[in-house]
Write a structure and sequence with these properties.
Layout: H1 2-43, E1 46-50, E2 56-61, E3 67-69, E4 73-74, E5 77-82, E6 95-97, E7 104-105, E8 127-128, E9 150-151, E10 163-165, E11 172-173, E12 185-187, E13 205-207, E14 214-215, E15 228-230, E16 237-238, E17 251-254, E18 260-261, E19 274-277, E20 283-284, E21 297-300, E22 306-307, E23 320-323, E24 329-330, E25 342-345, H2 350-358, E26 361-364
Length: 367
């Protein structure tokens, strides 16, 4: 019995000693890890994540410095990404140096950093996230690298630089990339998503590259300084309100491959005086030219079969419109507010009957 008790005491003491040794070892290991992490933090005021490919992503920034230098390597691994909202609304930041190893900038990474004055994007950068630089209103110049492949939605919304070139390497662009910015001139790639220049009130000149097939909705809406834009022959479709509110636009030629002039496409283009609708256009949709008070004369080509409701609503200075025989429907109110209008049409045509019903003056062009 005494032997059994002694053995139990020995086992108990051994267990206690082992526990103490394990506890001390854990404490030492914790202190070692803490010292390493703390040492990294003292050198680099970031939290990081190691990705599966071995690259490092910056996930959090703690300091409040005016100038931030992001290192190329942290603990021997390349810094390849800046994560979601890392510098969001950092008003103290005036200068950021990005590493040459950087491949992507995450959503809203620098959004609201309105005091950054300059930023050089590295050559290895391939992706810029949604709203990554939104509201960075002090950046006066930005060069997009030639290897860039993707630009997220509203990435440069409300920025204040005058010029930007979208490299040909870009294969994806989100909506509203440059909306609300102070751009005056832009060089485009083969992409032109919706809202791209919406609200760019200082944009004066833009060349749409040949090869683009669609102009999406609101692409140039509200570009009140845009005075001339050439739609290339490659374009086969325009979406609604594409040029609405371009109050300085004076001339527009709509190419023959475009079958439909969509809803409110040129609404409130008040200085549009020179309009050519090419033979090939089939439909003029509702409110397409609403409020275009600069129009004096319009010729509808023989290809057009349908003029929708309020298509020319409020074009109060429109005095002459030529409508040929193929037009088989003109909807209600197509010319409301065109008080001085005379319709030039063929005898026994739908246009003549419409003019008679609506009490609009008309002149027969086959007499």
């Amino acid at each position: 019995m005494k032997t059994t008790m002694k053995e139990s005491e020995k086992l108990y003491r051994k267990t206690i000693i082992n526990f103490i040794i394990l506890f001390v070892a854990c404490q030492i290991a914790f202190l070692i890890i803490l010292s390493i992490v703390y040492g990294i933090f003292l050198k680099y005021p970031f939290l990081c994540r190691i990705e599966n490919d071995g690259g490092v992503t910056i996930t959090k920034y703690f300091a409040k410095e005016k100038k931030v230098v992001i290192p190329e390597y942290i603990t021997g691994k390349p810094v390849t990404g800046i994560g979601f909202k890392v510098f969001l609304d950092n008003k103290k930041l005036t200068e950021i140096i990005l590493p040459s190893t950087l491949k992507w900038i995450g959503d809203e990474a620098f959004s609201g950093c309105r005091n950054i004055k300059n930023i050089d994007l590295p050559d290895n950068l391939i992706a810029i996230g949604d709203e990554a630089f939104r509201g960075c209103s002090d950046i006066k110049n930005i060069d997009l690298p030639d290897n860039l492949e993707s630009i997220g939605s509203r990435a440069f919304k409300d920025c204040r630089f005058d010029y930007i070139k979208i490299p040909k390497s870009v294969v994806r662009m989100g909506s509203g990339v440059l909306s609300g910015s102070s751009l005056k001139t832009v060089e485009l790639s083969s992409l032109l998503p919706e809202h791209t220049f919406s609200g760019c009130t200082e944009l004066q000149h833009v060349i749409i590259p040949d090869g683009i097939e669609r102009l999406e909705k609101y692409t140039f809406s509200g570009c009140s300084s845009l005075d001339n834009v050439v739609i290339p022959e490659s374009v086969i479709a325009i979406d609604w309100r594409c040029f609405s509110g371009c109050t300085n636009l004076k001339k527009m030629i709509i190419p023959k491959k475009i079958e439909t002039i969509p809803y409110a496409c040129f609404a409130d283009c008040v200085n549009l005086t020179d309009l050519t609708i090419s033979d090939g256009v089939l439909r003029i949709c509702g409110n397409a030219f609403e409020g275009c008070i600069g129009l004096l004369e319009v010729e509808i080509p023989n290809s057009v079969t349908y003029i929708a409701e309020r298509a020319f609503l409020g074009c109060k200075n429109l005095k002459k419109i030529t409508i040929l025989q193929n037009v088989t429907e003109i909807s209600h109110g197509a010319f409301d507010g065109c008080d001085n209008l005379i319709i030039y049409c063929h005898s026994n045509s739908y246009a003549e009957k419409y003019a008679i019903i609506k009490g609009i003056s008309y002149v027969l062009i086959d007499k």
